[in-house]
């Protein structure tokens, strides 16, 4: 079965009139567009603007990104989450420097071949930077297309994505690829809103929207419920001695790779149990203060944390920490902000570090 979007001609003048002024829409530099699109995959537009400006003033081009020390790069990304994305960006920047003479690729295949760049991002970069006629179908655009077509299947299923992407590609005017793609994203972000709340009265193509005609715009799109997240219990210890706090670097692969974090036990412990563990590790803590519970939700995992501030005596702090985890070290508190990228998962305890 093939699906055809309605006549999308009214979309372009609507966009010209209603588009938000966003910094990445004022450039044709593929590097800047790439940075914006990777940031926008995980964070709201309003929040991205600040990160975008800061990132680009420190790393204005591919070379600067390729050469940035890793800890500094992670620090620049702190708060955006999904750190593997920025690591992949650096990998890609190094490929561009070493294999392509520092020039960003200018073909779809060339862009798609870079680490961390999938069909969506390649389409976005190639259309926005080079006006190449590729679609850029993210979650916003999938929703718009599903509603326009009254599409009843799970939009996240690979077969659905394929059908909807083909429909969007066919509707794209080949001489206005960039504007059409931006306009579809804008329509999804500002009018064809998710969670049963579309503003159909503001939509330039509402008269031809199959879901609205069928009275189904509130129910669509259909998304199959993802598998439940794995729950992990953690007891987080903010181990302090004088004006220093114990940190460790997470492994170079996996969740939150390469970031710094406080020590934790992978189970829920109360204050008494924490004191016992510390005593067993070689030193009775001077003070253990509960910091309360916190939760952090990742894509497939949920951390349920309980935190404690632990004040250690200077005479045995090093021993206790080495016995808990050899990789712990003490960082001066006033250097943490400037030097160590900490995952936002620990936000609830950050003030005590
Ligand atoms: N989300 C993803 N790409 C975007 C863009 N170019 N403008 C606004 N929001 C977006």
Provide a brief overview of the structure.
The chain contains 15 helices and seven strands. It is of the alpha+beta class.
What does this structure look like?
- The protein is an alpha+beta fold and 353 residues long.
- It has 2 domains: 203 residues, Orthogonal Bundle (Endonuclease III, domain 1), CATH 1.10.340.30; 123 residues, Nucleoside Triphosphate Pyrophosphohydrolase.
- Strands 1, 2, 3, 4, 5, 6 and 7 form a 7-stranded mixed sheet that branches.
- The chain is elongated and about 75 Å long.
- The model has no long low-confidence stretch (mean pLDDT 95).
- The protein binds adenine.
- Adenine binds next to helix 2 and helix 11.
Describe the secondary-structure layout.
Layout: H1 11-18, H2 30-40, H3 45-58, H4 62-67, H5 70-77, H6 83-99, H7 108-112, H8 119-130, H9 139-148, H10 158-171, H11 177-190, H12 210-213, E1 230-241, E2 244-249, E3 260-261, E4 263-265, H13 271-280, E5 287-297, E6 301-311, H14 317-324, E7 329-332, H15 333-339
Parallel strand pairs: 1-6
Antiparallel strand pairs: 1-2, 1-4, 2-3, 2-7, 5-6
Helix pairs in contact: 1-11, 2-3, 2-8, 8-11, 9-10, 9-11
Q: What share of the residues lie within helices?
A: 40-55%
Distance between the termini: 58 Å
The CATH homologous superfamily name of the largest domain equals Hypothetical protein, domain 2
Overall structural domain count? 2
Q: Assess the beta-strand content as a share of residues.
A: 5-15%
Oligomer: single chain
In this entry the ligands are: adenine
- Name the helix and strand elements from N-terminus to C-terminus, one letter apiece: HHHHHHHHHHHHEEEEHEEHEH
What structural class is derived from the secondary structure elements?
alpha+beta
Over the alpha carbons, how many angstroms does the gyration radius reach? 24 Å
Q: What does the largest sheet look like?
A: 7 strands, mixed
State the total count of DSSP E strands: 7
At CATH level 3, the topology of the largest domain is: Endonuclease III, domain 1
Total helical segments: 15
Question: How would the global form be characterised?
Answer: elongated
Indicate the mean pLDDT: 95
Quick one: CATH class of the largest domain?
Mainly Alpha
């Amino acid at each position: 079965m093939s699906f055809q979007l309605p006549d999308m001609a009214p979309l372009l003048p609507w966009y010209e009139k209603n588009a938000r002024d966003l910094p990445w829409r004022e450039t044709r530099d593929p590097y800047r567009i790439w940075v914006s699109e990777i940031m926008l995959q995980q964070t709201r537009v309003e929040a991205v603007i600040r990160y975008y400006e800061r990132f680009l003033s420190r790393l204005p081009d591919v070379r600067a990104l390729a050469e940035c020390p890793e800890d500094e790069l992670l620090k620049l990304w702190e708060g955006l989450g999904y750190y593997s994305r920025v690591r992949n960006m650096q990998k890609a920047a190094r490929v561009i420097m070493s294999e392509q003479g520092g020039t960003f690729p200018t073909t779809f295949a060339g862009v798609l071949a870079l680490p961390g760049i999938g069909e969506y991002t390649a389409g976005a970069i190639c259309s926005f930077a080079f006006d190449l006629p590729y679609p850029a179908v993210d979650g916003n655009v999938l929703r718009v297309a599903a509603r326009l077509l009254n599409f009843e299947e799970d939009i996240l299923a690979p077969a659905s994505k394929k059908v909807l992407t083909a429909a969007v590609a066919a509707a794209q005017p080949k001489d206005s690829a960039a504007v059409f793609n931006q306009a579809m994203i804008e329509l999804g972000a500002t009018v064809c809103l998710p969670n049963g709340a579309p503003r159909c009265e503001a939509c330039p193509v509402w008269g031809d929207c199959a879901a609205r005609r069928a009275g189904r715009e509130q129910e669509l799109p259909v998304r199959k419920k993802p598998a439940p997240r794995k729950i992990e219990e953690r007891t987080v210890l903010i181990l302090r001695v004088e004006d220093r706090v114990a940190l460790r670097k997470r492994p170079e692969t996996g969740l939150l790779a390469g970031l710094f974090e406080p020590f934790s036990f992978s189970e829920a412990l109360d204050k008494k149990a924490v004191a016992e563990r510390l005593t067993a590790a070689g030193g009775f803590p001077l003070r253990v203060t509960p910091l309360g519970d916190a939760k952090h939700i990742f894509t497939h995992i949920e951390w349920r944390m309980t935190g404690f501030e632990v004040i250690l005596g200077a005479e045995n702090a090093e021993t206790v920490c080495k016995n808990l985890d050899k990789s712990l070290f003490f960082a001066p508190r006033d250097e943490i902000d400037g030097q160590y990228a900490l995952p936002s998962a620990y936000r609830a305890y950050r003030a005590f570090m």
